[in-house]
Automatic annotation (TrEMBL):
InterPro entries registered for this protein in UniProt: PhaG_MnhG_YufB
Keyword field: Membrane, Transmembrane, Transmembrane helix
UniProt-recorded name of the protein: Na(+)/H(+) antiporter subunit G
GO molecular function annotations of the record: sodium:proton antiporter activity
UniProt lineage: Bacteria, Pseudomonadati, Pseudomonadota, Alphaproteobacteria, Rhodobacterales
Source organism: Palleronia abyssalis
Transmembrane parts of this sequence: 6-28, 40-59, 65-85
Superkingdom of origin organism: Bacteria
Residue span of region Disordered: 92-124
């Protein structure tokens, strides 16, 4: 019973961190900021999910070290790849900047542009 609660907490924490890292990747505007969100938040999220899987394997199925190897690989490669991506970004300053991410404006967003300022429009 207690192990189920621990596994559930690890799964929820992992899902939240992974979701926040994914949103950060989509919403942040510069490549340096885009690198930061997935390397920090998603690494902790996937690490927590793997920890939940490892606890489940040891408690209910006899144990396996596959999750531990995956976690070690993840924690070693994520900072190294982020470092290389950051170095590439620093060396390509003479190239055009990357386009901004898509905005939050959807079909249901009320547009208050210059034409909408002033008197309200009446449709007859």
């Amino acid at each position: 019973m207690i192990w189920d609660i621990v596994i559930s907490v690890c799964l929820v924490i992992g899902a939240i961190f992974t979701f926040v890292g994914s949103i950060g990747l989509l919403k942040l505007d510069t490549p340096m900021k885009r690198v930061h969100a997935p390397t920090k938040a998603s690494t902790l999220g996937v690490g927590s999910l793997l920890l939940a899987s490892m606890i489940h394997a040891f408690v209910y199925e006899g144990g396996s070290l596959h999750e531990l190897l995956i976690m070690a690989f993840l924690f070693v490669t994520a900072p190294i790849s982020a470092n290389f991506i950051s170095k590439v970004n620093l060396h390509r300053e003479d190239v055009d900047p990357t386009p901004p991410p898509p905005g939050d404006r959807t079909w249901s967003t009320f547009d208050t542009g210059p034409a909408d300022v002033g008197e309200p429009h009446h449709i007859d």
